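Subject: two folds for Thursday's group meeting

Dear M.,

Sorry for the delay on this. The cluster queue was jammed most of the week, so I only got both jobs back this morning. I'm pasting them in the order they finished. Each block is the input sequence followed by the predicted structure tokens. Could you check whether the formatting survives your parser before we put anything on slides? The first protein is the one we discussed after the seminar.
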Amino acid sequence: MINLELPKKLQVGANQARQVATQIFRPVSRKYDLAEHEYPVELDTLRAMMEAMEDAGQGAAGATMGSGGSPGRKEPKKGVINGGNMKSLLNIIETCWGDVGLTLSIPRQGLGNSAIAAVANDEQAERFGRVWASMAITEPEFGSDSAAVSATARLDGDEYVLNGTKIFITSGARADHIVVWATLDKSKGRAAIKSFVVPREHPGVSVDRLEHKLGIRASDTAQITFTDCRIPKENLLGDPEVRVDKGFAGAMQTFDNTRPLVAGMAVGCARAALEEIRTLLEEAGMEIDYDRPATSQPAAVAKYLELEADWEAAYLLTLQAAWMADNKMPNTKEASMCKAKAGRAGSAITLGAVELAGTLGYSEHSFLEKWARDSKILDIFEGTQQIQQLVIARRVLDLNSSQLK
């Protein structure tokens, strides 16, 4: 029988992440929401804590998302595994309960780090193990269709030469490295798309602008142009060969790791909204009774129970996707399922909480309006709702991208 109780070793890390959310993130959440693009200096304290724990051999102990395990590396432990992906997920749920934008700004915990963990070989994992990497996929000409990448990478001797413009790069101006998706040969389609690790402070790399956004304002979102940017050929992540028979599989491993994390962000933010609205309902004298049908309780309570059930479904789907990744099970379908469900549920729950709170939910006296703004991006980046449904349909129907578009 399945056991949904979390192991104690994971609970310890999640508790540490909750302390970071409570003591560091929540107190400054509104400050950096109102001061977009101002660097959160409080993160320097968090960075020092992380480095001290790592030097002591404790790892990044729960305060951050951590890094997922690579499907390409062998796992010495036998039996059921609760490893890097599950730890990362639980930690990110807690820190996003504090603030999504600040979570996305945690040093050395960018989405690019998860991409490195997903496809890097052992030497690369060691070499890039202590960098802070953002991830550059989207371009001005396309949004969710990652196969439409037009940025180019040309091999010239022992170096690749990168050219192209990337937009909507989370932590693009703050991270010290960027994982850039580019094509080795546009005529060969998806199979030629590879990812490259590029230092941000590097000849040919230009941060063009920072975006002003609806939510996650504590996080910087940049446009970056690569002009004849030369990097060592060893900075291509994973296999440099273009294998048409494998198609987009190598690149998709990145999403198999990162989509559950983004789902976890939505789960954490939505849980914050649920807890807040429950407190407000109880203060208004409304008792939430799980032993009575929702239809026999006040309308506001019935709505809360509906939102809570939606959250539980998203949470369990997300746990499943991360657990499968840790246990080296193919999880492309499950990663998209949890991302689709959590992204949609996160928006519904945070907006539902705003409605239930009335004027209080719409004002800055509460975080409810902020959480509603923050949660919207979690239904968009790492693949929109429509893209996730397309991926799921292809897996369920056993069709490839040319058969189902």
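Second protein, same layout:
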Amino acid sequence: MAMKALDIYKHLPKTNCKKCGYPTCLAFAMKLATGKADVEACPDLDPGAKALLGGVTRPPVRAVTIGAGERSVTIGEEFVLFRHEKTFYHPPGIMVEVSDTWTEVEVRSVVDEVRETVVHRVGQDLVLNGVAVRNESGSADRFAETVRLAGGGSSLPLVLISDDPTAFEAALAIAGQYRPLIHAATADNWEPLAALAKQYGSPLVVRAGTPADLAAITAKCAEAGVADLLIDPAPGSLQGYITVATEIRRSAIERTEPALGYPIYLDAGALGETDAAVATGILKYAGIIVTPRFSRASREAALTLRQNIYTDPQHPIQVTPGVYPINNPERDAPVLLTVNFSLTYFTIVGYLEASRMPCHLLIVDTEGLSVLTSVAGGKLTETMVADALKKFGVADLVDHRILIIPGYAAPLSGKIEDATGWKVMVGPRDAADLPEYLEKEWKT
């Protein structure tokens, strides 16, 4: 089980020497409890305490990096079973599979699709992560050639899927330096695959039908010198995956079975309904999801879901406060107020840009909360609005003194007028109604 900060503190020197980089031993203990500090930072710990604390403060799910360079993907290093307990840190890598029985054109089209897919959403670029090459031809040479066609791992991370150690040797001769993921070691072949993974420094997937068997094989692979492992529970259905993935994650988080403390691998195509399987993997603990080629709509849905699940619920995505010109506004353009919650900002900007109405958009810092939540929680106040108008020099940008506030902020209208000296107009609650509102109501 994970130790609480006070339990960790009992094992520290309590000298507050600051050698660890924190002002007190208690502050260091709090960072250790959340996995944001390393026990090695304390030079005064005796070996016994260091071994004890190291075992209970390191992430219960090991971090594993697949690929090399800027497109590499790091997974694992998670601390909780449920997102609301804290947050999930490393989104699963989504890998689109190709077969070594396909033509060169078919393989390259998938690779290009993966490389070029970008979904722009609330200020972030969402991408697919790599390509999985499946050895279905039975030929080691054909497998290696397909790996080469897929870029050899130099531009996109690769998953190598085969049952044949000889095929892996041929593929790794091309892609080994780029840390491809090897799938999969079983009770029958783990020794040669562990040797290859160790030789090339590649992460290795362990595959077995039960958590007990998975733990047994991961322990053997770790003893053989392979530190970066994933586990594939080989589920037969979506329900089976949810059940076993939850059991594995719980065992890791509660540290009842350290040999299960690795990211989970999911073959979405093997479960039939690909879209549902991908979504399930995102929601329930998958570290790598291998999927057949899927439609643009399905890709966008999966990437959006992944972004939502792996956004820290305690720290919403935010934009920088300030004044944003929309459609080249001049001095008679309206000034609209909103909050710095990214989804609110980008929704409003989308409608305003489409309307072609020039305006100034004033963003105030509500710590990423929505308008309604900010008003209810006291994060959006008349004093904040007055300070923002002054700080960002809004009065110097326009000849009028009129401010349009969101409909949900209507209760603050009188207070804002008193605090700022500006006339306040209450806009619509829905951003979709802004263009019509401005067309009818805006007059300087």
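Two things I noticed about the second structure. The first helix runs from residue 5 to 9. The mean pLDDT is 93.

Cheers,
T.
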